């Protein structure tokens, strides 16, 4: 039985460094190649030695697919391709291909230039890695090789996020990456057709959450920001440069406009302008409303939001600052946080998920004293608010996707074990659900149908006989011969099979002699046999042929008399091997009661 | 398999393919050359046009002076321009299942097909094709509705009258079927039936056929189509280009192994080199501006104009035209320029790389930013106050019969300083200019048609090697004006199958196989026997399920156990049903081995007799004969069922079962 194997190297019962190996129909695919925000050591990257202890990965992988540009999905890519070694194709969508190298370069700068780490990938490696990227379009069927094909679907999570279907023959796997089932202010909802994959590998970040309506969350968010501004406080919103940031910018921009607010809104790092430009150029990836109106009014041209300068942090008076990165683990958001943490008028709003080990995670868990580098502690006095704006599917969304795709098996990744367990229980009411830990392999046995080429003559004959609609109560059986030659499977009628193979038919016939006594002439005896058979064998075709034979279906009956005794007749029954039922059964059961007297030794 | 040809225009095709119980329309191009028979629609009152004299036949018997006007020896219909539609009588349009669109120029007849015909199918097109197609339709509707014409001329269409008309009007065909432009409402309704597809996306139609668009390299989102089942493949090639302009390059390799290739949309200017034309365009433009004249470029609002602007972007500085204003006037000018920048996925590699930076892929963004290029929805409004001369104006419609271009022709036509440069190949420039004669302005004809020429297409066909080629009849002979140029036609073996308007072609196809799926349970129960080295056979008995054109074979369900009936067994016997038939046999029974086998089974007294065709074995103890021949075995015995069964099984050991 064919099997599909799925092994997470990262994101198995965990969030971060997504990297999942899939073996399907003899092909090996790596799905995502991310880094872990919570670690600064070896655990930062997936453990590629699982694939091979020494040497390059090229020989072991048929392709690598990146679902979206978040670093926990693509952060280890240059390390994998350039330092471990992989030269095969890397697939990602156009927006991901455009934005991913920028985030990688950012990541590299923070790690190497700021933290002074060595033995890290270089700018050149990022460039070389990106040269191996093949762009993917939505719904395009990409033939990786003769057997392996992949297809991308819209995932809605961030600009360019995709779910992918991987198919070999009639086996298939769908990997969701991160996805969002509800459209937001700038992106649409994830969508997939009823592709019935053998396994659906889904993220499960919010496996146990069912979130209230987005409108409520937006109102809450705006209210909190507004209140804080009103009392003269500063609001810090740690975000990643692309994604949630744009959604919240649109939200604040429209609110500022409506309420006629004057407090400044800033966006940290030079990426803003650039980031917004990506959104303008890839507008086809945003939601319907933005796409429809972009000629008249481009939603990504902001009037109220300006670039941030480090010195502004000390300015008096209220302000709102979007700063990167989103989990307060490094960079500008952390610097501003340190400056503002001491004042209870200020506020930090965490709009997304925070990985364990980051400051974001700590303060969200209520920690009010933070140990900083150099044994200093930081008292957290500012208000800490959590608003789930990250665009992941919640439990309802995950179930919704299951209904859409109708998978045969489910496999959960990118979530916390305890939460996954809960969802798994729910899913298993319907079908198998797996949740392998990192390094563990889930095996799923598939049961693919075998495609064969059926002779059109045979098919049409069967369809004509079967009538236009199949009758489930009276299944009709068809018969044919399957010819297996090299890689082709052909189903033809037996006669055609003989012809195609250049074989002669071998006729196997049987003749049975039956002695009987009958005073009539030979033709009369035959006629008596005929009439008798007619009366007892209803439903059979019985013919009396002019050449002096009687045929019951394809059984031939002849009569001859011996030279010595005209009353001693020999009945010759002759039939071929292909006759369904041995005719002797038919004849002797029916003959004996009435014609018994005519028979000699039977 | 049949092909119904509804349009005779080779670059604006409309064909219907019937393939495996699906009815697929390939493109629905609108032949707009019919508008050349009409008077231009001026935006502001034109004394010249209103003073034209009406037409009456020379002998005075036919008077159509209200409907027909004479201008410089040609006769024009004074009515709202009408289009020549694809043939609508050849087959019932409501039976069409899907329409496949190859590029935005080839979909302009869509509302005529999908509205008011009972059409209930789906239209497939790429996103740029839909968006830009919508803009072009919107523009067309706007051009027509902006200047409503009270009069609708129909008398001249009378067969008896048309026969006596002069010039091209007399030869115009099917004038009764010509239709006025559709409304915006009809456009929206037609386009709501479009389903978006991406290149190489596989779309299943009713489970019977798979269609897939391929990049054709001609315009943004332009595609060729593959229509295939597991065993048959039809390629539809329409408007393709091998030149490197802005769109994604043409996908040629996917066209390989086609049974039939339908070839349309070759270049209309087989002798004009696009690069040379572009050069001529620039130099004529510069010359006119330097001499203080204005340049008018009648063009479509999308397509080649992007390339013209890109070319000018590089040319302006070197030709010292930095201060000359460039105007692009169209109700959809802004949208067209904006839309061109957001289709990164559909652009050539160079342009994609720019988007990654991120920079707009087309340099016209910079021309707009630096105020060198300005766009306006029409000549009314802002344009009239901001307009400076000498200037360059890009505007439509290239037929010169409607749109803002009519105004500029009237305005600039009288001065020899000005130049009109034709770049679109769809209309004969002499015919286009006819109602403006006499004309003082210079006319330059630089048609830029990037579609495949005959040289490129024969190379392409050599590479992809279709079994049969179907093409418009125009491609099977040299153009009328250049009848000696045998290089301007398709020469293939076997020769291409030509079509014309209203042709119905039987495509040479022999379907022999269909894909069916054997369910795993049944597959596991099959026992293959090797009949030849590398060839195995297995007999299959199965239940065939056909649903949505997908066929599966399942194991035969075990018959339910028959309930023991209490009734006396009836005497009448029914034929058995549902039993697997016995296989056909092949091979021969070798005498020696057979005898050994018989012996092993206790049959020792065998008398062998040779016959011309084989042997007769007489089993004396059993009083049974076995006749062994190369292609037959005959067992003759009395009613001894166990013996017969034994002998049968022994014989079968030596034979192959099919």
Description:
The complex is a heterodimer of chains A (602) and B (658). Chain A is of the alpha/beta class. Chain A is elongated, with a radius of gyration of 38 Å. The radius of gyration of chain B is 36 Å and the shape is elongated. Chain B has three domains: 2-32 and 88-147 and 181-267 and 452-506, Metallo-beta-lactamase, Chain A; 274-445, Rossmann fold, CATH 3.40.50.10890; 585-657, TATA-Binding Protein. Chain B has a seven-stranded mixed sheet. A seven-stranded mixed sheet of chain B has the order 10-11-12-13-14-21-22, with no helix packed on it. By secondary structure, chain B is an alpha/beta fold. In chain B, a hairpin with a 3-residue loop joins β10 and β11 (209-215). β24 (477-485) of chain A pairs antiparallel with β26 (535-547) of chain B, so a sheet runs across the interface.
